[in-house]
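INTERNAL AUDIT FORM
Audit reference: QA-55
Scope: verify that the stored structure record matches its stored sequence.
Auditor: D.O.
Record contents follow.
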Amino acid sequence: MLDKNGIAKRIAKEVKDGMYVNLGIGIPTLVANYIPDGISVVLQSENGLLGMGPFPLEGEEDADLINAGKQTITTLPGSATFDSALSFGMIRAGKVDLTILGAMEVSENGDIANWKIPGKMVKGMGGAMDLVASAKNIIVAMQQVNKHGESKLLKSCTLPLTGVNCVKKIVTELGVYEVKDGAFHLLERAPGVSLEDIKKATEGKLVINSDVKEMEL
């Protein structure tokens, strides 16, 4: 199965030349390290940055350059910084081509819960609700099971929702799924992962075609 970097590396293959891409907090931020060579992509961070680059090397961090998760980052030539009001104006105007988010739960209908666990303190809902309401395409990067071994790909989300019927694709440590027609359609399985492993880790409706291939990284 994949680690977090493996998930990010696979999702980076979904990024196409000329896209404006928003990277959410958590695993999605790692995608910046794996953008394929030879394509031009503008990474957007909702705290006010266009042109985000890979994470800095140790000792080269600039505390004034951070992403939405408050991690230090780098900028690429031609990058721009601005206030969060302008940033959310871009998001709400549909200027972002692809949004990559983390999630606590996703339902078979494409609902996503990723901002709050009842009873636990949160700093705020962040920008996810604006992103899921405005994005043209949403890919989720997440672990498929929680620390208790319970599935997070569910029939219905149990946590407060961030968005409804909005997730198009999911990449987990076990595989790649397309969300459509009220089901998780398995497109690829992670190296070394069996179809039985995937069935056990999926609570929601799972569709497995006969030609499922092993993921290439």
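Auditor finding: record pair retrieved intact. DSSP finds four helices and 13 strands in the chain.
Action required: none
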